[in-house]
Amino acid sequence: MAQESSERPSAFAAPGNFPTSLFASYYNDPTQTTAQVQPIITDPVLNIRYPLDLTDPDTIPDANNEDPHPVPPRASDDKILSQLISQIKAIARPETFNSPFAGNPCAQCQAALIALKAIALVVPDLGHLGTEALCNAFSLSSDCSDVFGPHDMGPLIIQMIANSNTAGYDGQAFCSKYLGMCPPPPTPELNLTGWFKSPKPDPSPSPKAPSGERLKVLHLSDFHIDPRYKTGAEAECSRGFCCRSGQVNEDAPPNTTIYPAPQFGAYLCDTPLALAAASLQAIPVLAGVEKTGFNFTIYTGDLVSHDPSNELSRAYTLYTETLVFDLFKKLLGPFPVYAALGNHDSYNSAQDAPHSLGGELGEQFSWNYDHVAHLWEHYDWLPKSSVDLARAHYGGYMVRRQDGLRVITLNTDFWYKDNIFNMTDPDVSGMLRFLTDELHDAEDAGDRVWILGHVLSGWTGSDALDNPSNLFYQIIDRFSPHVIANIYWGHTHQDHFSIFYANNGSVMNSSTAQTVSWIGPSITPLTNLNSGFRVYEVDSATFDILESYTWISDVSTYPALDKQTPGDNNNHNFNFTGPVYELEYSARELYGKFINGWGEDDPLNATWWHKVTEAMEENPALVDTFNLLQGKLAREFTTNCTSEECVEAKICYMKSGSSPLAHRCIPGFGANV
User: Does some domain include residue 167?
Assistant: First the structure.
């Protein structure tokens, strides 16, 4: 074995010149020392010579656009759907105990929506399978294939998800309002820069002088006519929609009806045709307009019955619209009815899509707007210009009457919580832009305006979404009280009001009260309410309300009407007696005695109603009276409002014209049943 030299050097100084013999050739001079040598390398396996650009320090590439970067092959639609559904299931049922989704339903919901959005964009035709999977994964319904399926809400949810920011505000709002899995997102600050073409006049224009002449105006709401009502069916069913064939009370013996549905209606049922006709026959007589007719009628929405979605259709909606408006024309006289659409006056119920979706999706509900607009034209209630507006603005329109009043109707589905198309944008439909422009025109012309809609913008804040109702409140502030005389809603089936104040309600007193919204009582008794309507006496110049009369019919008396027989009077020409409507109260007579310094011809305006709330604060018994009237004297079902908490809450609701303002009130006392 060779022995290493014991005298090996401890250091070695390499030559300063590059050993040029290492390579056969070079791209540069191998003897220079100012740059690294660039040998020419030939690959003996691939038999190629590598170019200088590969190693030249001055030409280093920014990206490799030549070599392959493999990705998985495109999956089939079925595989995409299957994988995304599996992700939804995994989000709903985390595999690990410390998953970020464990115990966090809001995070689960929004993450699942991200997967659902991928389904909506990639395989929209199969989107209903994704919505059904979402429903099943989170146990949202006992019948997911029906409610979230292809013939109900599935396609509409997919449309919304495809156009929304599911990981952001949209997703949280949807998970909060529609699925109840997230806290509501905060109301964003409104940016009103450029929204109004001019600032609010300061000082406000002088109010119009009263004429001393009074108009009579009928306010109807929430007819909910039920052409499928079955007299004699179970009226106190255990579930579902009562007074229909096949409904039962589960506490009753088999084949036994506990409470047969009376001919004229019941507390857990919608309006049978018999009650519809009876109410419309009674109204002109009680209002004293049999010969003259009302000057006009306002209708604040909801014609269609409360059927489950699987029993509804376009045809049923169109039939109901035709039936009810025909009844109005025949029984209320020749003068116009100004109607707003309600959340039930659509199919699917409560859904209306904005034109901004574009194409067929943006026009998918136009069949309904075209139909009602042409019905209103057919009955000579609207001129052609207003009909065109109704077709373009989701059934909303402006009509200028010959007496100078402008009536503006809105499709309030565009702020209703159950319309999945408007979770975030305060004016996704352009409806509030339309309202603002019409109010500017009215202001320029010196006209006064009534605004009609269905879903109320405030009260408890449980129906209108925060963002659009907040914008609506600012619009009302800008044009009140000199332009807007009154606002009218329906929807709750009950009788109440809300006051709008200046400066977003930062100070609430009789000086800052600007406009009041009147929520009209329903004809339908559903749920546990008496049937009712209201008549206003209105000054013909200011269009302020001078008197408000509310009539009701006691639904508990209806079963006895079915027991009448000709023998009662021993008269073969016996005329059966129908429902009795009677005056429930006059607003001025009931509350006016508590208001000092208010003349009999002074209007029941926002200032007056604020003074009513002051009287209620001094005399809480008035709140309990209001509470009883709210349910139209359905005493059997009315919960008293005598506690300090209830009194405070009710008065707070009365002062809340928007959902954000209502959120400061004590919750849980909005209804009285």
Answer: yes
Residues 353 and 474 in one domain: yes
Those residues with Cβ within 8 angstroms of residue 362's Cβ, 6 or more apart along the chain or in another chain: 353, 354, 355, 356
- The candidate with the shortest Cα–Cα distance to 325, out of 357, 280, 265, is 280
Q: What is the pLDDT of residue 121?
A: 94
**What are the structure tokens assigned to 61, written together?**
């590439």
**Domain total of the chain:** 3
pLDDT at 85: 92
In this prediction, residue 4 carries a pLDDT of 57
Extract the residue ranges of the chain whose pLDDT is less than 50: none
Counting DSSP H helices and E strands in the chain, the numbers are 19, 14
How many whole angstroms separate alpha carbon 88 and alpha carbon 86?
5
- Sign of the Cα torsion 146, 149, 150, 152 reads positive
In a domain, 236, yes or no: no
* Any domain includes 251: no
Structure confidence at residue 673 (pLDDT): 64
For residue 170, the tally of other CB atoms under 10 A from its CB is 21
7/4 Cα distance (integer angstroms): 9
Q: Is 166 in the same domain as 225?
A: no
* 397 strand-pairing partners: 409
pLDDT value at residue 177:
84
113-145 in b/e form (b: 16+ CB < 10 A) is bbbbbbbbeebeebbbbbbbbbbbbbebeeebb
Residue 192 lies in a domain: no
- 304 and 378, same domain (yes or no): yes
Contact predicate 134/116, CB 8 Å: yes
Model pLDDT for residues 642-667, shown as the tens digit of each residue: 999 999 999 999 999 999 999 999 99
User: Distance (Å, rounded) from C-alpha 333 to C-alpha 265?
Assistant: 25
Eight-state DSSP code of residue 619: -
Residues 513, 654: Cα–Cα separation, whole Å: 12
C-alpha dihedral (526, 528, 532, 534), degrees to nearest 10: -100
Query: 55 in helix, strand or coil?
Result: coil
Determine the structural domain holding residue 42 and report its residue range: 19-59
* pLDDT in the model for residue 425: 84
Q: Where are the alpha helices (DSSP H) in 379-501?
A: 384-392, 431-445, 466-478
Q: Bridge-partner residues for 549, per DSSP?
A: 535, 586
Phi-psi region of 301 (alpha: psi -120 to 50; beta: other; left: phi over 0): left
Contact 230, 269 (CB under 8 A): no
Give this prediction's pTM.
0.88
- Asked whether the beta carbons of 394 and 385 are under 8 A apart, the reply is no
Cβ atoms 148, 141 nearer than 8 A: yes
Question: End of a domain among 6, 28, 59?
Answer: 59
Same domain, 154 and 286: no
Q: Say what the pLDDT of residue 575 is.
A: 77
Are the C-beta atoms of 416 and 490 separated by less than 8 Å? no
Residues 29 and 87 grouped into a single domain:
no
Q: How far apart are CA 196 and CA 213, in angstroms?
A: 34
